[in-house]
Amino acid sequence: MPRPVTPGRRRAPGFAAAVSVAALTALGLVGIAPTASAATVDHLGVAFGSSTGAVRGGAGGTLYGLGDLGNPTQALVDGAHVTNTSQKPPGGAQHPTGDALRVEPSFFAGAGKDEYVYMQDHYPDFPYNGGNRPGDANNDGVWDYLPIVKQEAETIATQSAHPKQYVFIPFNEPDLDWYTNWTNDKSQFLSDWSAVYTTIQQVWTAHGLGHAKIGAMGDSSFHADRTTDFLTYAKAQNQLPDVTIWHELNPGSLANFRTNMSTYRGILSNLGLSAIPVNITEYGNPRDMGVPGQLVQWISMFEDQKVDAQTAYWNYAGNLNDNSSRTNSANGGWWLYKWYGDLTGTTATVTPPQPNTTDTLQGVASIDTTAKKATVLLGGGTNDVSVDLTGLSSSVFGSSVDVTVRADRLNGKEGLSQQPPVIVSQRATVSNGTLSVTVPNSDRYAAYQVEVTPARANRPAVDTSAVSTVEAENTTLTDATVYTQDPSSVNGMASGGKDVGAFDKADSAATWTVNAPTAGTYRLTVLGGANGQPGQHALFVDDTFNQLVKYSADQSWTYRGTTSVLVQLAAGSHTFSLRASKDGTNVLPGADITLDRFTVQNVTIGDTDTYPAVDARLAGSATMTYGSSTSAANGGATLSGSGSATFFVSTLESGYQDVSVDSVTTGASALTLSVGGRNVSLGSVSGAGSWRTTVRLWLPQGISELRVGAPNGATVTGITTVRGSTQRAADTATANAVRVQGESLTLAGSARAVQIPASAGSNGDADANGVVTKLGYLGNGAGNTATLTRPSSLGAGAYVLTVSAANADQSSNLNYNPQVVNRFLDVTEAGGATTRGTFRNGYSWNSFWDTSIPLDLTTASGSLTLGNAGAYAPDVDVVTLAKLTAGSATTVAR
Predict the structure, then answer these.
(1) For residues 259 and 257, what is the distance between their CA atoms, to the nearest angstrom?
(2) Strand 849-857 to strand 834-839: parallel, antiparallel, or no bridges (unpaired)?
(3) What residue stretch is flagged as signal peptide (predicted)?
(4) Which active-site residues does the annotation give?
(5) With a cut of 70, which residues of the chain have pLDDT below it?
(6) What pLDDT does 758 receive?
(7) What is the pTM of this model?
């Protein structure tokens, strides 16, 4: 289990002490390749005719990536396609969250195949038990660790719904813990292996479960000598592990891993052993997590070697190891894993410019001849990339293909990332199975998705909504400091490699020019880091105060997120200025925020995004359609019976979206739609044609999982989402929703209003004097509640309760990680059911994030009581109860 910097357990950026580059070099953590000339074009060769095997898809695993049921949300888990995870044993003291049994319903409901258990995480400390191997303290003749092992196996055998899908890891990083000196400790380790192996198998046998899966050795890095000795012994004892485990935590692993695998396979061969699968149960550094251009290098390496792998746990349980943001949102890392989870078919041979070289251009590619799609994921370089494709068979793709390229950029650990934009969209001619696609790139932290399909009816256009993107360090700065974030450090990731700090003076300002092509509504998004507390800046447009920009709290200045505001602009050139003071004298609360990047997008027609069917995940009898006599169907998913297409859509804010499903039918038909498993009526069409069916849905901030079906047959070509002023107006329409300040609910017991002074800073709803009042001391007793009276006009049905809430709860820090605690809110309908919502730690009691809870209300007007009898609930700013659907679906011809 990683510790800070050294290979092993982890400590959070912002919690760890500073580490010098010299120290990192001594530890082998610096292996950065030199940056090439900007004029250089790199070539990435992809041979689709040279298969490297079936897509495994196992490199998206996590260690403690799951915290509690609902943390992360099911949509995040499903979209990231998590096939394997390691968690603590039931009741383990290592962390307050991450219990294997608590998270298994969510894990196995998605792509989950193998759930691993770090059995030593029964102990609260690392190294475990003070770093000392337990003895026989009570002199009963039994090694003190064995009863722990037995009890954990018993609990999973008797309480898990999926015991046969568990893999036990009896020893985690034994080379750094109980068995550090192999010469002296080898015999003890081998004896202990036999003891734990036998104990676990005896439990499984007693419960009629057959053979229990066990993984070993679990070292913090690959050791050929230890591995050879262990496998030699395990073979002789007929106690071979089912999975071989070690960790790859250093940047140098990107250069050395394939050599380690070659050595490992040589050991198996020399011992006359069949292949034993590998899981790298901890990989990567804090600098890699949430950074697409870094993560794609790891993924491509592990997929090439057909091993499973899990991102290391450096900070928090329950956020996919920094690869999701807030309670339900995607960051750049999540989108990369979503892309990786979309790969089907077989993988192709990829030839990068510098194989096995740390921090360079790498890639992974797949081809699915049934779906007629070829995909390349690439990143890690600083130059434009010529992706040179071969093996594109004319019998699959024809001679004319559609090519799209999307760019997934660094957007902070807590950044709210929409679907990555299309940067290349073209129809191209394939000659003798070859095609070269140029990917414009200057960003080593970005990853790219290249998709090739036969010609389709609706190839997405290049996204031109961003009218301005500027690095903060390239703006005109006043009384602020530019910092270089060295990518060779464990934490040093900033967009463009630099950021702006010391932004805490009355005259601190960042000023730049934005050209608005038309009059309309524009969205300014700021990537920055608020250090443990929310903050505020004043936005001036053309030297006139426009509005306050409010930031939610981030873990630190380097563990950053995003905030955005809407601005009305006339056509033409404008001067934007973010300032630490509104009046030039008084510094705004929490203004010392690290500024990284500013983006301005034209959203006059609303935040609009299209999700093509070629990016949907198909199930059942669903197939992709090309060459149809109905040209509008080309590039669509043909559905019938139980066949379905699942889309993962993203929204920047909670509220109503107009969700449109485009389809082509050959006769009367009806579409089905489920939103997070809840059915929504879309009506039907009477005959053949091309149709657009639109329904207004309340979607939570972040990711929603939408599944479309057509039992009687239809071809679905995509989904479009729109949120603009019309949809925002629907948020508060009395026919659809009720919005109430938390302190204005009917309070009982200890629940009470708590004022946050304007001087403290908050991103919550403020009154005219800048004061935010929240509902605190909710829960921790059955009588400490808040009740929402429902308007009778809303009636029974499907609803969403969106709660803007704060949680900064932590348990005692017994080890290396911030021991963050989820809080829970129980919502009870009078005369109906109780539903529980899970609220992630958000760093500050003054910082509010949205969490949406689906409610199926069965009474016409039964009140909703909020509380938690067993523990404190989160602090609440605002609650909004909204119908899942506003109005009825409409269908029009296209």
Answers:
(1) 5
(2) unpaired
(3) 1-38
(4) 173, 282
(5) 1-39, 490, 492, 813-815
(6) 87
(7) 0.95
